[in-house]
Amino acid sequence: MMRWRRGLIIALTLAGCVPPAGPSAAASRPAPARPAPQPAPARAAPLPPAIISVDGPANQGGLTLGTAPEGTESLTLDGQAVPLAPDRRFLIAFDRDAGPVATLEARLRDGRTVSRTIAVAPRAWRIERLDRVAKYPVPSAEFQRRRPEELARIAAARAIDSPVDGWRQPLTWPVTGRISGLFGAQRIYRGEPGSYHSGVDVARPTGTPVMAPADGVVVLAAASPFTLEGNLLIIDHGMGLNSAFLHLSRIDVPVGARVRQGQSVGAVGATGRASGPHLHWAMKWRDARIDPLLIAGPMPN
């Protein structure tokens, strides 16, 4: 009987039905190594918000100051470059006929582009219609000969960019008195518009001192009267902003002189094309003609 059982066990073992004694091959094989866990990728710190700020509302014939975002490399207004001060302050202005919307765009060092849309408020202008008067008489030959050079001198002076900060100051009136001519006023001659009035006229007697409305550099001081402007003085206040004073009886400062706000720079007169003694104060920011009355505020009493 014992022999029969031993023989059965041997037969089953040879047939593969009973596993051999001892550890199996699978049990002796080492387990595969698991990959080490990888650290989660670090999240980039969120970029600070970038905002173009402006100090006040925009108006036709007006100006406003603003601040560009940190890291601004360049700033444009409707595609035209706007200079930036080291503290990122800037100045922009809007022509008498500026459209209803303007766009500021800043390009930052980190590759971002930030824009701000500005609504430009319209203004009502004094329009006078003269249906029985022709537009202008034919200019004299002398005027036509002299005028191109005068315009070139004015353009060159206004293109000068002086390193001064008068543009940051609240502007003051260069002379006080009765306002006899408004910026933007225009006549329509038999349906044909004439040029609009490019500055503010203040009626004062000849010889009344004219003061600098802000710090600046003298960029034009006419040695002899221009055909239209008479004795013309232009002061650059920096960042593309400048003041022109027309019809002066005299000019007290030379080209290149630095002037301070409130300093006497000349005197009221009636030189050039003027019907009586007055100061014509005109302002420009680059190509935009702007309204001194809107910038300096109401005439002091």
Model description:
By secondary structure, the chain is of the alpha+beta class. 14% of the residues lie in helices and 34% in strands. The protein has four helices and 22 strands. Strands 10, 13, 15, 16, 17, 19, 21 and 22 form an eight-stranded antiparallel β-sheet that branches. Strands 2-8-7-4-5 form a five-stranded mixed β-sheet, with no helix packed on it. A hairpin with a 2-residue loop joins strand 4 and strand 5. The model is unreliable at 1-20 (pLDDT under 50).
Set down the secondary structure blueprint.
Elements: H1 2-15, H2 25-28, E1 53-54, E2 58-59, E3 63-67, E4 72-77, E5 80-81, E6 89-93, E7 101-108, E8 113-121, E9 127-130, H3 141-158, E10 178-181, E11 186-189, E12 192-193, E13 199-203, E14 209-211, E15 216-221, E16 231-238, E17 241-248, E18 250-251, E19 258-259, E20 264-267, E21 278-285, E22 288-290, H4 292-296
Parallel strand pairs: 2-8, 9-11
Antiparallel strand pairs: 1-3, 3-6, 4-5, 4-7, 7-8, 10-13, 11-12, 13-21, 14-20, 15-16, 15-19, 16-17, 17-21, 18-20, 21-22
Q: Rounded to an integer, what's the Rg over CA atoms?
A: 39 Å
* Strand runs, count: 22
> Mind describing the biggest β-sheet?
8 strands, antiparallel
Helices and strands, in order, run as: HHEEEEEEEEEHEEEEEEEEEEEEEH
**Which ranges are low-confidence, i.e. pLDDT below 50, for 5 or more consecutive residues?**
1-20
Shape: elongated
DSSP helix count? 4
